[in-house]
Amino acid sequence: MGRTVVVLGGGISGLAASYHLSRAPCPPKVVLVEGSERLGGWIRSVRGPNGAIFELGPRGIRPAGALGARTLLLFLLF
């Protein structure tokens, strides 16, 4: 029988962990457990009255340098 991995929390870290686990060479069964009604944790998207989409969260992301570029790639994967 294969392995099962339970990821607690559907914030950006839990989503990234689930994504990378599911893409492993021998991926386990991944179960994502989230306690709220939506995924994303502190990060969420809202649409303004004019149709513009705003990304909200407790911290800003500074896309400077290689580390910032890799962080931004996490958002493009979902």
Automatic annotation (TrEMBL):
Pfam families: Amino_oxidase (PF01593)
Keywords annotated in UniProt: FAD, Flavoprotein
Record Gene3D superfamilies: FAD/NAD(P)-binding domain
Keyword tRNA-binding: no
GO cellular component: mitochondrial inner membrane
Keyword Ribonucleoprotein carried by entry: no
InterPro entries per UniProt: Amino_oxidase, FAD/NAD-bd_sf, Zeta_carotene_desat/Oxidored
GO biological process terms, semicolon-separated: heme biosynthetic process
Domain spans labelled Amine oxidase: 12-64
One GO MF term attached to the UniProt entry: oxygen-dependent protoporphyrinogen oxidase activity
PANTHER family: PROTOPORPHYRINOGEN OXIDASE
Name by which UniProt lists this protein: Amine oxidase domain-containing protein
Protein source organism: Colobus angolensis palliatus
